[in-house]
């Protein structure tokens, strides 16, 4: 547990990239500041004389060797390393292991090894494997496919945030694994060959597929191939072509000859995880995609996307988007049948940065589960969120641009050249709607979002930016910074107005009890809103069901539980403060905001959801609110103060 917390601490610092106090980090991990200092010492010891974590007057931040420390192999005697070693031994021994001999080899007592075997049983849930114990022997029983899934789980546990890491893979498979040093060139050539075959390659999934190829090569080298499975006659034509490429590369790079069962399995993984119709198929991509789709999948996707568009007022009902998502869902359905889930290294950042998009993805995922019986994990939901985000980015409206007026006293064509430079350098952020060429313009009458002026204004202001007649890089940066400040202030101003309207004073609870768990906290806050007639007991139950789909801990400090479906009598928010933090999902939070949305406030959903999460993504703001929010009035005062800056 200690090493896991060390890794989590370092991962937190790496993601954030800023200084953090020991108290803040202690809240995030649910430990004491003294423990944080101990973890920092241990992390730096991993890379001595390097620096994994820097220390200073402002606290701690990730050092230059942080990435190395995250990937550093743990002490062979740590529980996690010993557990992985034990699982590898069980997987490599069809006839089982001798408990006493294994305990001697690991330099632990038989009692300790018995405890480790109990932990191995805990890993086997959902793997179709069983651990049998007879006298002094222990062995795993189950199919080769199930054993490989267990190896995959161990490899992911070794890797940081689901990213592909050859060193971690080798630790999982063992130092004697096949051709570990060859997988870099293998991956490079596989991507190139898939590209020449006319496919776009999903780099987020290719690492996961190469990991499965590594596992297959290792198991085949130990005479543990997958059995050949009879296939239907309508097998995809591309499957044989992809299998041939994998067979060639495996024999050349890894010196392993894969059998028919392994090649079929790996070809399916490639076709369902990492490729999509590419540029070579652009002219007929839509027709080819539709021809591949199962009618049941296409119909379900169309219906559910239409429901999501109406529920969240988002513009996602477009033919290309529907077809691409339907193909992804069809591939996902095939992966689900084999329990071949795909990791997504962007899951955490998508959830915290784009909570609204992630929420739309959860809605779609829930609909797919109900219609097609596809169980979806957070990583798979994140891939759906990437599809949704891509569609929304394409359909973004031009009215999101800020308007600007250029003030540049006339001198030949100087103002025309300046406007041309502004359009060229800043056209994606602002729209120039006017140019003032007088040396004494009526500053008060200029009502655009920004004023870009080459002369000093009569009265300086937040929206006025001084620039040079010939636009410089520094000018561009200042204008972009000013535009960012204006956008943020507008978002937060809207948020302030909405929150003051929706907060329920009787729904404020300070001192959440960690023993309640997520469900208990939701019920506690839900009771306050039920008592006010805002929601009913069914809404509370549906909020718990939504939480089970995917954790609503959108930042390292904030959870926003809510139900799918806007059925509250009015929109209201109940707030719970936890000091110290409480467990929530895979992390810990200090603020829980139970939000009940009504049908009439549908448009407020995005404002409340995204901007509220944005406020609580700033660590200093969270600490200020949590420490000072001793009552509802104090909470609201601090929140407004943070919003107003």
Automatic annotation (TrEMBL):
SUPFAM superfamilies: Phoshotransferase/anion transport protein, PTS-regulatory domain, PRD. Keywords: Repeat. Residues 501-645 form the PTS EIIA type-2 domain. Pfam families: PRD, PTS_EIIA_2. Residues 292-398 form the PRD domain. The keyword Iron does not apply. This is PTS transporter subunit EIIA. It comes from Microbacterium salsuginis.
